Amino acid sequence: MVREVRWGMSRVRWHDLTHAYGSAGDVPGRLSRVAFGDARTSASALSDLGLWLGELAVFDATVEAVPFLWGLAVTDSVNSRSGVVELLQAILEHGNPSQIAVQRAAHRAVLNGRSTADLLACDEDAAVRAALRIWWPRSTATSACPAALRANGPPR
How far is residue 71's CA from residue 156's CA, in Å, rounded to a whole number? Predict the structure, then answer.
C-alpha cells in the first residue's frame, strides 16, 4: 500500500496547489515521512500536515492529500495511523468559507473513504479504532465487523 501511495503522489502537481501557508510542494515529503518515518518523525510530519491541510481550514491540497491519508491509515507499517485518522477527522470538521467548492470537495474526499473507515473499525490497533470511533458512527463495535471485511483487507 505504501508503494502505491508514493507512486500516486508523484502524479499530483503539488506545486500548483496550496495549503495554509502557501505552495503545497512540501506535502509529498511530509506524507512520505508519515509513511516511512519512525514514531517521532511520523508524528512531526502529521503535525505539519494538520496545520497545513486541515486544522485551520481546508485547501485544494487537502482534497488531493485525503486519498493518500486513507491509504496510510490502513497501512500497518505506518507508525501513527491513529494520528492519520485524527487528521481526517479535522479535515471533515473544518471548512473554507471563502472557497466553498474546495471545502465541499475536501469533505467529500473524506466521506468517500467510507469503506476504508468501515475496515478501520475492525482494525486490530485499539488506538486506530478509538480515533475512528469518535467521528465515524459505524465504528462502534468491532464484534459487528464481518469476517470477510477483515479477511479481504482495504478496498482498492
Answer: 9
